Amino acid sequence: MANNVWEVLKSPVVTEKSLVLKETSIEADSGQVLTFRVDVKADKDQIRKAVEEIFNVKVASVRTISYEGKVKRRGRTEGRRPSWKKAYVTLKKGEATVDYAEAI
Question: Is 99 inside a domain boundary?
């Protein structure tokens, strides 16, 4: 288990899907949705506390997805990428919008 908030949140996920989700959630007048790569052992409560402490916002909900590492081959040698976990964090309605670069 990660005991430090900076160990829980690894990095923001900046993909086309996550940026579209972030922008549409702002336009829909609902809570902003942020996407993070998190520690595999972190639970939803730890993720909630880490986001609230780092960004000074209130979190409405946390959804997590665990990804299995892909099997990769190079010639006859077979290896495996590490497994990882992604979290969708929805902020409470009315919270200030969060910009990843400014917050860190």
Answer: no
